[in-house]
Amino acid sequence: MARPERRTVRDIRRGNRAVLLHTLYFSGPTSRNDLTARTGLSAATVSTMTAGLLGENIVVEAGQVESDGGRPRVLLRVNPEYGFAVGVDMAENHVRVGLFDLEMTERAKVDYVLRPVRHDPELVARHILAGVEVVLSDAGVPPEQVLGIGVGVPGIVEPGPDGVIHAKPFGWDGVPLGALLRRGTSLPLYVDNGAKTLGQAELWFGSGRGSSEAVIVLLGVGVGATIVADGTTFRGASNSAGEWGHTKIVAGGRPCRCGGRGCLEAYVGIEAILDRAGVDSQGDWEEDLDRLLASESPVIQETVTYLGVGLANLVNLVNPEKIVIGGWVGARLGERLLPEIRRATAANSLAEPYAATSIVLGRLGPDAVALGAATLVLEEFLNTPQVARITAAG
């Protein structure tokens, strides 16, 4: 029988501080009285903790609100300029680096183009490191104000300090991206799957906010999902849960980039859509998809059907209250065809779980993966409001 974990006074204080900071961050400007009610902490604890946070400039005053018969109550908020987070979206055709304040407002951004057929790890690491320097310079933010760098990548990310990535379409099998980046920066690093970073962004700030049972899907070149159970991202035994794009929808079907056949990604990923339509793309995927949508090609309706099957599998298996469709392909399909996508999902779902599910579009746009990567840094800051150690998410 395992012994119960012993918690010191310092552990309790750290936990209380994290609870207070989380509540203050997600509630917006809040009075001490409201913090006491929302956290369950004593008024004395809230007063002591907020005094400490004010003294460290982590929290600032944000005006006053009238109270019933007493003095106006001072509102508090997390100081958006206490620190900054870098968020990186590493995709098949670009590396996007953004700098965000603690309100997750983007202060600077830079993009580097990648050739879809070439993803040299050293080149990718150089782009990321160069991008960090550019966004800090453009925003006039010194490195000591940066709390960390979050990186969203395609593929499976092993838990551990080296950020080891397995991404077959890139030819990456055990690439230690975190270790490569550490050669050029001493800032804390967090590496996670891009679908999961997008999912966390939508869960915290977008269409998934307030949902405790949800699936946020990413449709782009690759296809993936974040499964949220009881308000927490489900990661599985080896951090690879959510590889929805590699569930099979056609036995022995089209070849997939992963080496298998019949995967959902082989039908609804952008390369698969264009290939089925006979489009000889030169890498201008967004323009090619827009033209295909405008032409009302039958391939688009086929894609909606395949997507509906994939979403129905999530409905039947996970029973979410909400499915959020994200990613740039998902946004383009959903903006024009969301009612058809819902009908295709309903046609392939069990009636009871489908009736409990709403299917909506993501709200955060093309920078959602980078924003979500920055939330990896924010999450560590809220849990331990100090500069965090170098790690890999998961």
Detailed description of the structure:
- The protein has 394 residues and is of the alpha/beta class.
- It has 3 domains: 9-78, Orthogonal Bundle (Arc Repressor Mutant, subunit A), CATH 1.10.10; 84-197 and 369-383, Nucleotidyltransferase, domain 5, CATH 3.30.420.40; 208-363, 2-Layer Sandwich (Nucleotidyltransferase, domain 5).
- The protein is 41% helix and 22% strand.
- It contains 13 helices and 16 strands.
- The strands form 4 sheets. The protein has a 5-stranded mixed beta sheet with strand order 6-5-4-7-11, with helices on both faces.
- Strand 2 and strand 3 (73-78) form a beta hairpin.
- Helix 6 packs across helix 13 (368-383) and helix 10 packs across helix 11 (328-347).
- The longest helix is centred in the last third of the chain and has 21 residues, at 298-318.
- The radius of gyration is 22 Å and the shape is globular.
- It starts with 8 loop residues before the first helix and ends in an 11-residue tail after the last helix.
How do the helices and strands line up, and which of them pair or pack?
Blueprint: H1 9-27, E1 30-31, H2 32-39, H3 43-55, E2 59-65, E3 73-78, E4 84-90, E5 94-101, E6 106-113, H4 121-139, E7 146-153, E8 156-157, E9 164-167, E10 172-176, H5 177-182, E11 189-193, H6 194-205, E12 214-219, E13 223-229, E14 232-233, H7 265-268, H8 270-276, H9 285-294, H10 298-318, E15 322-326, H11 328-347, H12 351-355, E16 358-361, H13 368-383
